[in-house]
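Consider the tokenized backbone below.
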């Protein structure tokens, strides 16, 4: 009943998927989920260090976790861009697009759109509503979104319950990627309370 077995035994129109397709789904499922969640956690920690009042509020109010995780994901936006093909002639914001043209979706830009989000460059862990697009939308919505929210939420809730203090001690180094530009190296100093 695990996901790898579901993919390995998947059938399309009654026939098993080919090995290239099967491996492709495994690769995208496991690497994409890892890289994006890692990016959200690393970027989220950087954001919480830069916004200590929000970090302290979350530590005192663990029930904020579901809202806080969505705000972290919006604020960080682990996947920067995707390219899509226009399937039919259409118009977006006064620009006509022909069938077959390609467009780039900039999720980070959408998640900082001042027409959608009040104070979009401010981390607000209690932001509601929060119609961010960090997990995509429609048929391209991330199938691992619920797992990403759970794992990230658990990590931050546990970390913040024990974190006495934290500070950045040097410049962050980012991954050289247009797609998932997460943090590669982020020097910090911190103190944890003993586990309960």
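A designed sequence for it:
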């Amino acid at each position: 009943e695990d996901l790898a077995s579901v993919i390995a035994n998947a059938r399309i129109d009654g026939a098993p998927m080919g090995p290239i397709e099967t491996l492709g789904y495994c690769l995208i499922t496991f690497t994409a989920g890892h890289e994006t969640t890692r990016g959200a956690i690393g970027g989220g920690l950087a954001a919480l260090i830069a916004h200590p009042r929000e970090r302290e509020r979350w530590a005192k109010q663990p029930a904020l976790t579901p809202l806080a995780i969505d705000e972290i994901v919006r604020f960080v936006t682990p996947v920067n861009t995707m390219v899509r093909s226009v399937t039919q002639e259409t118009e977006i914001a006064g620009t006509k697009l022909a069938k077959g043209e390609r467009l780039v979706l900039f999720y980070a830009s959408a998640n900082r759109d001042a027409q959608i989000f009040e104070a979009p460059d401010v981390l607000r862990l209690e932001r509601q509503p929060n119609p961010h697009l960090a997990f995509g939308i429609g048929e391209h919505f991330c199938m691992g979104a619920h797992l990403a929210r759970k794992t990230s939420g658990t990590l931050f809730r546990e970390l913040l319950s024990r974190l006495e203090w934290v500070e950045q001690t040097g410049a962050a180094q980012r991954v050289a990627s247009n797609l998932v530009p997460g943090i590669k190296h982020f020097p910090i100093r911190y103190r944890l309370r003993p586990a309960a």
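The first strand starts at residue 11 and ends at 12.
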